[in-house]
Design goal:
Elements lengths: L6 E3 L2 E3 L3 H9 L5 E4 L6 H4 L2 H8 L3 E7 L12 E6 H9 L13 E5 L12 H4 L1 H4 L13 E9 L4 E5 L4 E8 L2 E6 L9 E2 L2 E2 L20 E6 L4 E4 L4 E6 L3 E8 L19 H17 L4 H19 L6 H6 L23
Parallel strand pairs: 1-13, 2-3
Antiparallel strand pairs: 3-14, 4-5, 4-6, 6-7, 7-16, 8-15, 9-14, 9-16, 10-13, 10-15, 11-12
The structure holds 2-oxoglutaric acid.
Pfam family, one: Cupin_8
InterPro entries: Cupin_8 (IPR041667), JmjC_dom (IPR003347)
Protein name: tRNA wybutosine-synthesizing protein 5
Length: about 350
């Protein structure tokens, strides 16, 4: 019989200040929904009309897809450039009179820096008029700041499962959004292609092709307007806009600045030491190619054992240790939460 994936609700915290965040969430390296943190007047102000007027006609590069589930494997989407106000109008409507592919195409904006090849995005530079409505939560040290990115999606838009190498505070300003996350420890069940999982349909995966996928523990939450989601570096995430939605995410460095690739503008290039280790591994695998298959198998297994004993953490996964009891999704959906602490809805 096919095993069901283990499901866990992302813990919900209310009345979180910097001290609670640093002590109870940041240290544990687990995702958490933070409700009630002040994000500024954007929550009331950012209607479609206001965004169009204040954001103006600055050009933005957007993803346009014929279906809401974007597929990076088969590149079922196009990149197109539109004035911001036109883009917002199209992302907010469900049927378009002007379109690139079809009347029902979906739109997604991940904003970029002024010089997209050299500079990370910063809402304060690209959209200063709108940025003054958004307060960046001050949970980190200013020198940890990396980028501040607009995320605007058509209703139904689903972004593939991927990881980033920076810590992330994803603020949902309008519209509801489902987010599914997987621990870095479950990487071996996710069929990775670089930083992305090849399993696009996470709700109904092809288990003949991806039999291991059910072994990945699924963390899930639905963000309401005003919620912040803390996504620690290396945690995989998949987003599904349940409505037209506007979000802003802020990436923060978790490691020292020199640990990161200087050319990284998206916050998703592996840290320098990790990239070097992966290159050395590729060279080691090439060396094994010189051996006959049974020797390659034997020395391959010895290498795996060495990696397991030297690099794997002996700590149990914090999410299990630190967050129990976590309500599983199979249980009731009603949530209660304790100010400044984990919710224990059961
Ligand atoms: O909210 C979204 O649309 C995607 C968010 C995301 O991938 C991120 O913040 O890294």
């Amino acid at each position: 019989m096919m095993q069901d994936p283990e499901k866990v609700t992302v813990p919900l915290f209310t009345a979180v200040d910097r001290e609670v965040f640093l002590r109870e969430i940041y240290q544990m390296r687990i995702p958490a929904v933070l409700r009630g943190v002040s994000l500024g007047p954007c929550l009331d102000k950012w209607t479609v009309d206001y965004l169009r007027e204040k954001g103006g006609d600055r050009e933005v590069k957007v993803h346009v897809s014929p279906v809401p589930q974007m597929d990076f494997l088969h590149k079922n989407f196009l990149y197109r450039t539109l004035p911001f106000d036109v883009f917002v109008q199209r992302a907010a409507e469900t049927k378009h009179s002007d379109f690139f592919i079809s009347e029902e195409e979906s739109y997604y904006l991940r904003s970029l820096g002024d010089d997209p090849r050299r500079e990370p995005a910063d809402l304060r530079k690209q959209f200063p008029g709108l940025a003054e409505d958004f307060s960046i939560p001050q949970f980190f040290e200013p020198e940890q700041f990396f980028s501040c990115v607009f995320r605007i999606s058509s209703c139904g838009l689903q972004l593939w499962t991927h990881y980033d190498v920076m810590d992330n505070l994803l603020a949902q300003v309008s519209g509801r959004k489902r987010v599914v996350l997987y621990s870095p420890r479950d990487a071996q069940h996710l069929y990775l292609s670089g930083d992305k999982s090849e399993v696009l349909d996470i709700d109904s995966p092809d288990l003949e092709r991806y039999p291991e996928f059910v072994k990945a523990r699924r963390y899930e939450c639905v963000l309401e307007p005003g919620d912040l989601l803390f996504i620690p570096a290396l945690w995989f995430h998949n987003t599904l806009a349940l409505q037209f939605g506007v979000g802003v995410n802020v990436f923060w460095r978790h490691l020292r600045a020199e640990s990161y690739d200087k050319k990284d503008i998206y916050g998703n290039k592996d840290p320098v030491a990790a990239a070097r280790a992966m290159q050395v591994l590729e060279r080691a695998l090439q060396a094994l190619e010189e051996l006959p298959p049974d020797y390659r198998d034997f020395y391959g297994r010895r290498m795996v054992l060495r990696i397991q004993s030297c690099a794997y953490s002996s700590e149990p996964e914090v999410a299990v240790q630190g967050c129990s009891p976590i309500k599983t999704l199979a249980a009731s959906n009603s949530e209660t939460s304790v100010p400044g602490s984990l919710s224990h809805p059961d």
